[in-house]
Amino acid sequence: MTPASASDFWPETADLSLVFSPDRTVFRHPDGTASTGYDLLRAAHRTAALLPDAPIVSLCQDVWHFTVLFLATILRGQSVLLSSDRTPERLLQLVASHSAVCVMLEGETAIEELPVGTLVLPAPDGSGTDQPDNPVIPFDREVATVFTSGSTGQPVAYAKKWGALVIRSIVARELLDPEETASSLIGTVPPYHMYGFETLVCQAVHTRSLVATGPTAYPADWQKMLGLTTTPRILITTPLQMRALLQADLDTPPITRIVSAAAPLSEDLARRSEETLHTVVTEIYGATEIGSIELPRVLWRQNDP
């Protein structure tokens, strides 16, 4: 792999279009079908026409639905509010404090209790042969507000600007798309969490990576997504889900790399995952404020012959 040069990270050379290279395949769906960037743009434009002129709290859990709604919100000139706390009380706080609207798309698994005033829109349809507008988004345009968990006090909001998200996606290629051919990203984490937002949603929009969609509740769901995609496969997950995958003892196609975050990863779990799944495990440290920082788990390999 040829490392990206420093010039690739400057705003003047980054592609600030809403969807990078829209003629490529971007998503693979549970029924085996695929969506291109133009399909994504068509769905986003159609959804944008139905949105109010207000910030959006996305209740979508499926990464395809979430990405469509994220881009539709940008097309509408608004931003999305991302909170890992999905309780009705917290969602209503966001609505009240930001004059926002909760939005869910049909076909989504509903959260336990939809907040009052939730807007339920038709499932996004990306069919067609036209090439819809793919606007260039200003580098300093605020497109998302991400909130900390509030575990040490009140949740704190951090604005995410379009250009910074694009640059972070490019920089992350060495971790998430390290091969000569485009990687397939399979995520077991939700897109409304900063971890999933960066590694799945932003990678799908800003890079050449393909992202698998579908249910993510159980190891059998992850096995299905792995089976729908092609190598090189990168599994985006957490230590808890890695442990569940090992315990399920399922046959899975080759996994090039496992990326883990959101909780401390023990050396024993990393080693067992590598040995059982014949892969390489990498841990990410990060925070809502600054995003993700790579830290490969290589300590146990240093003394190998």
Report on the structure:
The chain has 305 residues and is an alpha/beta fold. The chain folds into 2 domains: 37-159, Rossmann fold (3-Layer(aba) Sandwich); 173-301, Rossmann fold (3-Layer(aba) Sandwich). The chain is 31% helix and 20% strand. The chain has an 8-stranded mixed β-sheet, with helices on both faces. It has a 6-stranded mixed β-sheet with strand order 6-5-3-4-7-8, with helices on both faces. Helix 4 (162-171) crosses helix 6. It starts with 24 loop residues before the first strand and ends in a 9-residue tail after the last strand. The model is unreliable at 1-9 and 298-305 (pLDDT under 50).
What is the rounded distance between the termini?
A: 25 Å
- In CATH terms, what is the fold-level topology of the largest domain? Rossmann fold
How many DSSP H or I helices?
Answer: 9
* Strand arrangement across the biggest beta sheet: 2-1-10-9-11-12-13-14
| Residue-averaged pLDDT | 88
Question: Helix share of residues?
Answer: 25-40%
Structural class: alpha/beta
Number of strands: 14
Give the strand content. Answer: 15-25%
